[in-house]
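User: Can you predict the 3D structure for this chain?
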Amino acid sequence: MAAITLISEAQAKEGNLFYYLGPQSECGDCKLKEVCFNLEQGAMYEITAVRDQMHDCIFNEDKVRVVEIKKVAQRSAVPKKSAIEGGIITFKEQKCGRLECKNYRLCRPYALEGGKKYSVVEIEGDAECPAGDSLVLVKLF
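Assistant: Here is the predicted structure, written as structure tokens:
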């Protein structure tokens, strides 16, 4: 059985990715909140199918659509010495303040939590680092 959730009609397109940021206080009295709150906070999801069912939503001030989803791995840049495919790492943001770096968002990803353990599902290759750190691009789950 597929995992389902509700998402705004405008975002409900197969293949779209989204981060689940957590429950909203406005949703406390909603009869459908359990369908929205069944996701892992901070995780990224891909919409795999869009169903025909729609519902009213106070938070979105619009309609929401039922979608099938799957959790997907998130890309990040991590120190080469800690990246072992199939291994577990404790994530730590890189201490870099170079906003102009093309890998800045991979070194400091939005939804990965510092101190949390993640599985390295794939190593994509070396990451350019203007600060000279030895980093690799990985997919974490």
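The radius of gyration is 18 Å. The longest strand covers residues 44-57.
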